[in-house]
């Protein structure tokens, strides 16, 4: 299996971890075992390491000690040309929608954009963006975010209706 996408590694990893958790919720998987499983599935070690570093970056951004993306409430986000190339109109609209309905704040939006920009892909699909949103919100300390709601993000239709 040749995988050139960090999100492919992350998606496969989350599927695997959810599957293991469903079978035995007390079982913990250490990094070595997880890396071995991902390698056995055909992912390159460099991609696995980049995916795990990508996740660690989310945790670092969300530790609450720093707010590197300070934004004033009610401010307007102007996307750079590089961001516009990576995030198409639908993806930018989805982020605006999520912010307008109060599901992400300006700081979380900036974390999402930063994480998207750190991916090696030239463009990101709306489905991939939804995965990134889900990963960032799923790693947040916000107790109001339910697993069912996170899953519903993946099934938003083009009209952006939340279940």
Automatic annotation (TrEMBL):
Coiled coil: none
Protein name as annotated: Protein Smg homolog
Transmembrane segments: none
Stored InterPro entries: Smg
Family recorded in the similarity comment: Belongs to the Smg family.
Domain of life: Bacteria
């Amino acid at each position: 299996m040749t995988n050139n996408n960090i999100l492919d590694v992350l998606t496969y990893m989350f599927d695997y971890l959810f599957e293991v958790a469903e079978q035995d919720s007390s079982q913990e998987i250490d990094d070595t075992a997880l890396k071995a499983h991902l390698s056995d599935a055909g992912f390159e070690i460099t991609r696995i390491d980049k995916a795990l570093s990508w996740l660690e970056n989310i945790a670092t951004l969300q530790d609450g000690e720093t707010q590197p993306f300070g934004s004033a409430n009610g401010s307007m986000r102007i996307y750079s040309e590089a961001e516009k190339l990576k995030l198409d109109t639908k993806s930018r609209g989805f982020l605006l929608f999520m912010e307008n309905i109060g599901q992400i704040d300006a700081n979380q939006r900036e974390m999402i954009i930063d994480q998207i920009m750190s991916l090696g892909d030239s463009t990101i699909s709306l489905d991939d963006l939804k995965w990134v949103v889900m990963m960032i919100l799923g790693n947040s300390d916000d107790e109001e975010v339910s697993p069912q709601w996170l899953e519903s993000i993946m099934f938003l239709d083009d009209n952006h209706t939340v279940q």
